[in-house]
Design goal:
The complex is a heterodimer of chains A (339) and B (519). Chain A has 339 residues and is mainly alpha-helical. Chain A is 73% helix and 2% strand. Chain A has one domain. Chain A is built from 14 helices and four strands. In chain A, the strands form two sheets. Chain A has a two-stranded antiparallel sheet with strand order 1-4. Chain A has a two-stranded antiparallel sheet with strand order 2-3. In chain A, α2 runs antiparallel to α14. By secondary structure, chain B is α/β, with parallel strands linked by helices. In chain B, 33% of the residues lie in helices and 26% in strands. Chain B has 18 helices and 24 strands. Chain B has a six-stranded mixed β-sheet with strand order 6-9-10-3-11-12, sandwiched between helices. In chain B, strands 18-21-22-15-23-24 form a six-stranded mixed β-sheet, sandwiched between helices. In chain B, strands 2-1-4-5 form a four-stranded antiparallel β-sheet, covered by helices on one side. Chain B starts with 21 loop residues before the first strand and ends with a helix. The chains are: A mainly alpha (339), B alpha/beta (519). Chains A and B meet through α1, α9 and α10 of A and α10, α11 and β20 of B.
Chain lengths: 339, 519
């Protein structure tokens, strides 16, 4: 009957866990929507498209979806750092994508590929520094700063190019990059996935990514922990700039052309992907992988609208509506979490 | 309630008892689990200056806000001119003539003096602002308190003291029957204070009732006719000023039963070299402070709320900019100047700020992440964080501070206040700090967690760290400190030994009672 005697139990995590399960936070719809919802919604949307939308599940269509998603996805992955740092967004990606695309094609034509890439990197670093210093050091409003640097950048680009369209060499390296496939996948799509994984590792595994998240979660506590917070902000805007540059390269390679107006709307499309993915505009919550999901969702949704004959105007309206919905859910989730 | 009317002053002539302008009967106010005001009755009659005194957290401000209709009492009722006030009806209290001068300035910096004085009751004619009437009323109110200032000057260009006077003019412009002032002299110089006290005296002579909240004992004796003393939310005594002495008033304020936990007190601690030192420190609200903390020593900074203790430590560490003086840290015989805050952290100083939720923790991050933040360099290889080491590190520190539940992957926001505070301390323990500065380390923390935090602080000092503790909790200060520095008006007004000092001695210095003795 020794088995009936209470066995001497060692104090172990198990009792603690057992008593914590019931006190788990009650289900809150908005919190669920903003974190887990996107996974279900993306799967549901893709299934819906496969079953009900004619022409969706064809290789040419999916290739087209990938080709359009890749540049926006890379831009959004970089911009995610800015959003998680609690600085809302980087509107200047519009100017940065166009500049990188024009530099890649025009400078390659004139001088060569390597100088073009080096110049584009230098420009990206300048964007990161200017946006980062204004926001991180001078504490200027990020929306207004990046709206202004968009004007500066696009204005400069249009002034220098006169709005001309640049065409790449028809058998040059850019063209080759734009047309190469790995299996059924366009190279740009592979690059998108690789860049996303890399940035995700930077975000989750490095000291820098950790500080970005900490800063977005609580600026003052992070400063008082001894973190060089202006440097964190400059770093976040630099990640965004490098993402925008790569996005510009992919965009230019896709069509082998570049023009200053080619990236119109990239700011909001990238933002839509980030927010729909569940990264909070209040900072501190989110991830690069979520942005990947958001990009898939927004791209598939756009493709469905194209295939069903809904025009550009309708698409634009839908994206706007989606952002309003997503930020409202985000704000609601934050409110319910804190209560 | 009706058979006895506590708080009503004995009538000067027995035939007519003046009707109190404002009266609180059996006021109880609870916030969650804490009882801020516990069954207090108080009344103020026309022409009377009624002083309300008590320690930090005695419930003065809460009671005042209940009387002004800003807060709804949990129990009891407020009467204005004998008429019950609808609970929490701010507008009705205002209309009935209760005017509150806030402790925190509530003026709009971008608007002019005249606009601010009539804010909320701006005179209009057919919907258009009547500038002339606005200026006339504003000018009259300023004249009444004897202050000259340009009516068109924006508030942002005025000195802090002048803003305080504008705030009072604003209350006067509403033609109140009772004026409630909460620590109005906190930002004033002695000359300005004298002017204000004289003005209030004159206003009281015109039959205005004044409720004057302060913990500055000389002012209370200079101005008040009656004084009500609160302690831990309860009414201790209400009496004519003539029946108090400065000493007896201080005793009433602090006279709780001493529950000092002296058995855990460090016995004859050994002090080494000076490790943390400030000389001639100046900053806003910090006036020329010298302060030394030795290895193995716990120095307590005492004083009233608003005395400038937090400002002193923040200026010392460079967390807020200084305007003069310098801080040095001596480690291994090497003296280093502390410039900005980051150089303080690099020099091995740990700082546990006053506001853990806004300054100490990232509530949406896990315990493990919060602990890793100040230790990130030692927990990463190159740029890469060592996740496993972070987890081990956080787990062992959570154990050291006895975090409950010991779940390091939970968001900090989900823990109780006491356990959150343990996380703030754990963050910095991991750096094995040589100098540690703690601002209100046990505020809002339950008794058990408090004892554990005290144990940690003592252990740090026993291991040779220099410890500086700011605390508004007098027993805590007395239990922990080897040396107590008392702060008033941003300067250190006295240094007391930790052993043999009682609450009254600290309080007397903090409340400036010594000025009375000197006068």
């Amino acid at each position: 009957m020794s088995s009936q005697a209470p066995a001497p139990t060692t104090p172990h995590p198990s009792p603690a866990r057992a008593e914590d399960e019931p006190e788990a936070t009650p289900f809150k719809l908005s919190a669920w929507l903003s974190t887990q919802g996107i996974v279900i919604f993306t799967i549901a949307l893709v299934l819906f498209a496969v079953v009900f939308v004619d022409g969706f599940a064809s290789l040419p269509n999916l290739t087209d979806v990938f080709n359009r998603a890749a540049p926006i996805g890379i831009v959004a992955a970089g911009m995610t750092f800015v959003v998680i740092s609690g600085n809302y967004l980087d509107l200047s990606v519009v100017a940065q994508v166009a500049t990188a695309a024009v530099v890649l094609i025009a400078v390659t034509n004139a001088v060569g590929l390597l100088p073009a890439i080096l110049l584009a990197i230098a420009i990206a670093l300048v964007y990161g520094l200017v946006n980062g210093v204004a926001v991180g050091v001078f504490k200027a409003n990020a929306v207004i700063v990046t709206l202004s640097t968009t004007f500066i950048g696009l204005g400069l680009l249009r002034w220098l190019t006169g709005g001309s369209i640049y065409f790449g060499d028809s058998d040059g390296p850019i063209r080759t990059f734009g047309t190469t496939r790995i299996g059924p996948l366009p190279l740009s799509m592979v690059l998108f996935v690789v860049v996303t994984i890399l940035l995700s590792l930077v975000f989750t595994r490095t000291n820098f990514g950790f500080m970005v998240r900490a800063y977005g979660s609580n600026r003052e506590a992070t400063r008082l922990a001894g973190v060089n917070t202006p440097a964190v902000v400059i770093g976040a805007f630099t990640m965004s700039a490098l993402g925008a540059m790569l996005g510009g390269f992919v965009l230019a390679a896709f069509s082998n052309t570049a023009v200053s107006s080619m990236s119109d709307g990239y700011d909001f499309r990238a933002l839509a992907a980030i927010i729909v993915g569940g990264t909070s505009v209040f900072g501190g919550r989110g991830s690069v992988m979520r942005t990947l999901l958001g990009v898939v969702f927004v791209s598939v949704l756009t493709n469905i609208m194209v295939l069903t004959g809904l025009g550009f105007g309708f698409q634009q309206m839908a994206i706007g509506l989606l952002i309003v919905l997503a930020v409202s859910v985000d704000a609601l989730a934050r409110k319910t979490r804190s209560s | 309630m009706s058979d006895k009317e506590p708080g009503v002053p004995p009538s000067k002539t027995s035939s007519e008892t003046p009707v109190p302008v404002v009266e609180g009967r059996g006021i109880v106010k609870r916030f969650g689990g804490t009882q801020a005001v516990d069954d207090v009755s108080i009344s103020v009659v026309p022409g009377e200056v009624h002083g309300l005194v008590g320690e930090n957290g005695a419930g003065k401000s809460t009671l005042m806000r209940v009387l002004a209709g800003v807060l709804t009492p949990t129990e009891g009722e407020v009467l204005i001119g004998g008429q019950p006030l609808d609970p929490g009806d701010t507008r009705a209290a205002l209309d009935a003539g209760v005017s509150l001068v806030h402790q925190e300035l509530s003026l709009v910096p971008e608007m002019t003096v005249a606009e601010n004085i009539l804010l909320g009751s701006t005179p209009t004619r057919a919907g258009v602002i009547d500038g002339r009437t606005q200026r006339r009323i504003a000018r009259a109110a300023l004249e009444e308190i004897g202050v000259t200032v340009d009516l068109d000057e924006p508030i942002s260009r005025l000195s802090v003291a002048m803003r305080q006077f504008v705030e009072i003019a604003r209350a006067i412009a509403r033609q109140p029957r009772v004026l409630i002032l909460d620590e109005p002299t906190a930002t004033l110089t002695p000359a300005e204070t004298d002017h204000l006290l004289a003005t209030l005296q004159r206003l009281a002579d015109t039959d205005l009732a004044i409720l004057y909240i302060s913990h500055r004992i000389p002012e209370i004796f200079a101005l008040c006719d009656r004084v009500t003393v609160l302690r831990d939310g309860k009414l201790v005594i209400a009496d004519e000023i003539g029946n108090y002495t400065p000493d007896s008033m201080v005793k009433h304020m602090v006279g709780r039963e001493l529950q000092l936990d002296m058995e855990h007190r460090r016995v004859e601690p050994e002090h080494g070299e000076v490790m943390l030192s400030a000389r001639g420190l100046k900053a806003p609200d910090v006036n020329d402070v010298d302060l030394d903390v030795r290895a193995g020593e716990i120095v307590g900074l005492g004083g009233l709320v608003g005395a400038g203790r937090t400002e002193i430590v923040r200026a010392m560490l460079g967390a807020d900019p200084r305007t003069g003086g310098e801080t040095t840290v001596t480690l291994d015989g090497r003296r280093r100047r502390i410039g900005g805050y980051r150089s303080a952290v690099h020099a091995g100083i740990a700082y546990i700020p006053e506001e853990r939720r806004t300054d100490g923790l990232s509530l949406t991050m896990t315990v493990s992440d919060n602990i890793a933040l100040p230790n990130r360099s030692s927990l990463s290889k190159g740029f890469v964080l060592q996740r496993r080491r972070i987890a081990e590190f956080a787990r062992s520190l959570a154990e050291t501070v006895n975090l409950r539940p010991p779940e390091i992957e939970r968001e900090v926001g989900q823990f109780s206040g006491g356990n959150q505070q343990k996380v703030v301390i754990a963050k910095w323990l991991g750096r094995r700090p040589d100098v540690i500065v703690l601002d209100e380390p046990t505020r809002g923390v339950d008794v058990g967690a408090k004892a554990e935090i005290h144990r940690l602080i003592r252990e740090l000092a026993d291991d040779g760290a220099a410890v500086l503790v700011v605390s508004s909790d007098l027993p805590e200060l007395l239990e922990l400190s080897d040396t107590i520095h008392v702060v008033r008006d941003g300067r250190i007004v006295g240094v007391l030994p930790g052993v043999g000092t009682d609450e009254a001695a600290v309080m007397a210095l903090a409340a400036g009672q010594q000025e009375v003795d000197a006068a």
